[in-house]
Protein backbone atom coordinates (compact mmCIF):
# COMPACT_ATOMS: atom_id res chain seq x y z
CA UNK A 1 0.00 0.00 0.00
CA UNK A 2 1.33 3.42 -0.91
CA UNK A 3 1.22 6.52 1.27
CA UNK A 4 -1.40 9.11 0.27
CA UNK A 5 -0.14 12.28 -1.36
CA UNK A 6 0.00 15.14 1.13
CA UNK A 7 -0.97 18.76 0.58
CA UNK A 8 1.86 20.04 2.75
CA UNK A 9 5.30 18.60 3.47
CA UNK A 10 5.76 17.93 7.18
CA UNK A 11 9.29 17.06 8.34
CA UNK A 12 8.63 14.99 11.47
CA UNK A 13 11.03 14.60 14.40
CA UNK A 14 12.46 11.13 15.00
CA UNK A 15 11.82 8.67 17.82
CA UNK A 16 12.53 5.05 18.68
CA UNK A 17 8.90 3.95 19.08
CA UNK A 18 7.90 1.07 16.85
CA UNK A 19 4.11 1.35 17.14
CA UNK A 20 2.53 1.09 13.71
CA UNK A 21 -0.46 3.23 12.77
CA UNK A 22 -3.52 1.43 11.43
CA UNK A 23 -4.01 1.30 7.65
CA UNK A 24 -7.64 2.46 7.93
CA UNK A 25 -9.95 4.13 10.43
CA UNK A 26 -7.48 6.94 11.09
CA UNK A 27 -7.64 10.72 11.23
CA UNK A 28 -4.32 12.44 10.55
CA UNK A 29 -3.92 16.06 11.62
CA UNK A 30 -0.75 17.52 10.11
CA UNK A 31 0.74 20.75 11.44
CA UNK A 32 3.32 22.44 9.23
CA UNK A 33 6.18 24.66 10.38
CA UNK A 34 4.00 27.78 10.09
CA UNK A 35 1.35 26.29 12.42
CA UNK A 36 -1.29 25.51 9.78
CA UNK A 37 -3.47 22.42 10.40
CA UNK A 38 -4.37 19.98 7.61
CA UNK A 39 -7.03 17.30 8.02
CA UNK A 40 -7.02 13.84 6.48
CA UNK A 41 -9.35 10.90 6.95
CA UNK A 42 -9.35 7.66 4.99
CA UNK A 43 -12.09 6.29 2.78
CA UNK A 44 -13.98 8.03 -0.01
CA UNK A 45 -17.43 7.17 1.38
CA UNK A 46 -16.36 8.42 4.81
CA UNK A 47 -15.13 11.71 3.35
CA UNK A 48 -18.28 12.25 1.31
CA UNK A 49 -20.59 11.53 4.28
CA UNK A 50 -18.41 13.75 6.47
CA UNK A 51 -18.67 16.67 4.03
CA UNK A 52 -22.47 16.32 3.98
CA UNK A 53 -22.59 16.51 7.80
CA UNK A 54 -20.26 19.51 7.94
CA UNK A 55 -22.22 21.26 5.16
CA UNK A 56 -25.39 21.00 7.28
CA UNK A 57 -23.65 22.34 10.39
CA UNK A 58 -22.01 25.28 8.59
CA UNK A 59 -24.89 25.83 6.13
CA UNK A 60 -22.76 25.45 3.00
CA UNK A 61 -24.29 23.82 -0.07
CA UNK A 62 -22.09 21.52 -2.14
CA UNK A 63 -23.01 20.09 -5.54
CA UNK A 64 -22.77 16.35 -6.17
CA UNK A 65 -19.66 17.01 -8.28
CA UNK A 66 -18.04 18.93 -5.40
CA UNK A 67 -18.89 16.12 -2.98
CA UNK A 68 -17.27 13.61 -5.34
CA UNK A 69 -14.20 15.85 -5.70
CA UNK A 70 -13.92 16.12 -1.90
CA UNK A 71 -14.19 12.33 -1.57
CA UNK A 72 -11.05 11.96 -3.72
CA UNK A 73 -8.98 14.49 -1.72
CA UNK A 74 -6.66 12.84 0.77
CA UNK A 75 -6.28 15.97 2.90
CA UNK A 76 -7.09 19.66 2.99
CA UNK A 77 -6.23 22.77 4.94
CA UNK A 78 -8.91 25.41 4.42
CA UNK A 79 -11.89 26.70 6.38
CA UNK A 80 -15.15 25.15 5.18
CA UNK A 81 -16.16 28.52 3.70
CA UNK A 82 -13.20 28.29 1.29
CA UNK A 83 -13.68 24.61 0.47
CA UNK A 84 -15.86 25.26 -2.61
CA UNK A 85 -13.12 27.37 -4.22
CA UNK A 86 -10.51 24.70 -3.40
CA UNK A 87 -12.73 22.01 -4.93
CA UNK A 88 -13.08 24.06 -8.12
CA UNK A 89 -9.32 23.68 -8.74
CA UNK A 90 -7.72 20.75 -10.52
CA UNK A 91 -5.72 18.32 -8.32
CA UNK A 92 -2.48 19.90 -9.61
CA UNK A 93 -3.72 23.42 -8.86
CA UNK A 94 -4.82 22.31 -5.37
CA UNK A 95 -1.28 21.21 -4.54
CA UNK A 96 0.00 24.70 -5.41
CA UNK A 97 -2.87 26.58 -3.74
CA UNK A 98 -2.06 28.50 -0.59
CA UNK A 99 -4.21 26.73 1.99
CA UNK A 100 -4.42 28.75 5.24
CA UNK A 101 -5.14 25.69 7.40
CA UNK A 102 -8.27 24.38 9.10
CA UNK A 103 -9.17 26.88 11.88
CA UNK A 104 -8.52 25.62 15.42
CA UNK A 105 -6.98 28.47 17.41
CA UNK A 106 -10.29 30.30 18.00
CA UNK A 107 -12.58 28.54 20.47
CA UNK A 108 -15.65 30.17 18.89
CA UNK A 109 -14.79 28.89 15.42
CA UNK A 110 -12.87 25.67 15.94
CA UNK A 111 -13.63 23.91 12.66
CA UNK A 112 -10.94 21.30 13.32
CA UNK A 113 -12.88 20.20 16.39
CA UNK A 114 -16.07 19.92 14.33
CA UNK A 115 -14.34 17.81 11.65
CA UNK A 116 -12.94 15.52 14.38
CA UNK A 117 -16.27 15.08 16.18
CA UNK A 118 -18.26 14.47 13.00
CA UNK A 119 -15.70 11.86 11.91
CA UNK A 120 -15.90 10.17 15.32
CA UNK A 121 -19.72 10.16 15.23
CA UNK A 122 -19.53 8.45 11.83
CA UNK A 123 -16.85 5.99 12.90
CA UNK A 124 -16.37 5.50 16.67
CA UNK A 125 -13.39 3.16 16.01
CA UNK A 126 -11.36 5.88 14.33
CA UNK A 127 -7.87 6.54 15.76
CA UNK A 128 -6.27 9.98 15.74
CA UNK A 129 -2.70 10.84 14.83
CA UNK A 130 -0.94 14.20 14.97
CA UNK A 131 1.88 14.74 12.52
CA UNK A 132 3.80 17.84 13.57
CA UNK A 133 6.66 19.33 11.61
CA UNK A 134 10.03 19.17 13.37
CA UNK A 135 10.12 22.99 13.22
CA UNK A 136 6.42 23.47 14.06
CA UNK A 137 5.44 26.13 16.51
CA UNK A 138 4.89 24.40 19.90
CA UNK A 139 1.77 26.49 20.68
CA UNK A 140 0.22 25.24 17.40
CA UNK A 141 0.74 21.59 18.40
CA UNK A 142 -0.57 22.39 21.88
CA UNK A 143 -3.60 24.02 20.25
CA UNK A 144 -4.37 20.84 18.30
CA UNK A 145 -3.98 18.74 21.47
CA UNK A 146 -6.24 21.17 23.37
CA UNK A 147 -8.83 20.85 20.59
CA UNK A 148 -8.75 17.08 21.08
CA UNK A 149 -8.86 17.23 24.88
CA UNK A 150 -11.71 19.76 24.89
CA UNK A 151 -13.67 17.04 23.07
CA UNK A 152 -12.66 14.33 25.58
CA UNK A 153 -10.16 12.79 23.16
CA UNK A 154 -7.15 11.92 25.29
CA UNK A 155 -5.73 9.03 23.29
CA UNK A 156 -3.90 9.87 20.10
CA UNK A 157 -0.61 9.08 18.39
CA UNK A 158 2.21 11.44 17.51
CA UNK A 159 3.76 10.55 14.17
CA UNK A 160 7.57 10.62 14.04
CA UNK A 161 10.30 9.31 11.78
CA UNK A 162 11.95 6.08 12.89
CA UNK A 163 15.25 6.29 14.71
CA UNK A 164 17.46 3.32 15.54
CA UNK A 165 17.09 2.31 19.18
CA UNK A 166 20.29 2.59 21.21
CA UNK A 167 21.57 -0.89 22.11
CA UNK A 168 22.63 0.02 25.65
CA UNK A 169 19.09 0.55 26.95
From TrEMBL:
Superkingdom, taxonomy of origin: Bacteria
Gene Ontology molecular functions: transmembrane transporter activity
Subcellular location: Cell membrane
Topology with respect to the bilayer: Single-pass membrane protein; Single-pass type II membrane protein
One BP annotation, GO: protein transport
Entries under Pfam families matching the protein: ExbD
Main location: membrane
InterPro entries linked to this entry: ExbD
GO CC list: plasma membrane
Keywords: Cell membrane, Membrane, Protein transport, Transmembrane, Transmembrane helix, Transport
Similarity comment: family membership: Belongs to the ExbD/TolR family.
Name recorded for this polypeptide: Biopolymer transport protein ExbD/TolR
Organism, scientific name: uncultured Adhaeribacter sp
Taxonomic lineage: Bacteria, Pseudomonadati, Bacteroidota, Cytophagia, Cytophagales
